[in-house]
Specification:
The C terminus is likely disordered. This protein is elongated. It folds into 2 domains: 43 residues; 187 residues, no CATH class. Strands 7-4-1-9 form a 4-stranded antiparallel beta sheet. Strands 5-6-8 form a 3-stranded mixed beta sheet, with helices on one face. It has a two-stranded antiparallel sheet with strand order 2-3. The protein has 269 residues and is of the alpha+beta class. The longest helix is centred in the first third of the chain and has 38 residues. It contains 4 helices and 9 strands, in the order ααβββββββααββ. The chain is 39% helix and 30% strand.
């Protein structure tokens, strides 16, 4: 009987061991992802990674905005003053800064031939015509000088003068003509008349204020060139002009003594 009891106890122990083993096997067979400790650690790692990335992005955004604001509002990193730049007008040479188109009336005339100081009939010729003349005024820019003192740029500008007067051949038209076969008007006679026509056109152009306008236009061109070089009001500079006698004014053109007369009117171009 004791032997049977011992056998029963051994069997019970064996059954308990088998149940414990089965429980351990069942626990080991639980998927790893369902373990609470593992899931919590994974979530913590993901949260940390997301936090680090977010912080990096925020820092990058702030730094980028600071650089952009610096470029938009601050002065250039390297300051280049206007004094380091030179301004020269020598390469421009003579430049017309104003033009006036003049409509002129000219006369080509050849007096009658004479014998013993007596006019021979039907030997005189006369032609009255109209023609346009383009008059140009300006100066030689190589004569311009300037200096800078206490942020004041002083430019010495030569006096404006008439540079040229060009005949508009397409506008030439004869108004009245009396020509003698014995003493006709030749091309050289017309050319002499054109010289007087040009002289008259220059006078008419000056009456319109061509020289004053040429001076204003020259000052504008010169001021723009200084501004391009950095001599601006924003940089604290002031540009002033002073007119000086031109070296070439002594070569001012005049009319030659030729036969005939000329008169007309001028229009600003």
């Amino acid at each position: 009987m004791n032997q049977n009891q011992n056998q029963n106890q051994n069997m019970n122990q064996n059954m308990n061991q088998d149940q414990n083993m089965n429980q351990n096997q069942d626990f080991n067979q639980v998927p790893e992802t369902k373990r609470p400790g593992k899931v919590k650690k994974t979530l913590v790692r993901i949260y940390r990674i997301i936090s680090v990335v977010a912080i990096v992005l925020v820092i990058g955004f702030i730094v980028g905005r600071m650089d952009l604001n610096k470029k938009n509002t601050n002065e250039p990193d390297t300051e280049v003053t206007a004094k380091t730049k030179s301004v020269s007008f020598a390469d421009i040479g003579e430049l017309a800064t104003q033009e006036v188109y003049c409509n002129e009336i000219g006369t080509s005339e050849k007096p009658a031939k004479q014998i013993f100081n007596v006019d021979i009939p039907f030997t005189s010729s006369k032609s009255i015509y109209t023609c346009g003349v383009m008059v140009k005024a300006g100066c030689d820019f190589s004569e311009i000088t300037w200096d800078e003192n206490n942020n004041v740029v002083k430019v010495k500008l030569p006096e404006m003068r008439i540079l040229d007067a060009e005949i508009d051949n397409d506008s030439y038209a004869v108004y009245d003509e009396e020509s003698s076969v014995f003493n006709p008007i030749k091309s050289e006679d017309v050319n002499l008349s054109f010289k007087e026509l040009k002289a008259q056109a220059k006078t008419d152009a000056e009456k319109t204020g061509i020289l004053t306008k040429a001076t204003e236009n020259a000052e504008t061109l010169i001021k723009d060139k200084f501004i391009e070089a950095g001599y601006t009001e924003d940089n604290g500079y002031t540009i002033v002009f002073e007119t000086t006698p031109s070296e070439k004014n002594s070569e001012a053109s005049g009319s030659s003594e030729v036969s005939g007369s000329a008169s007309g009117s001028a229009e600003k171009n």
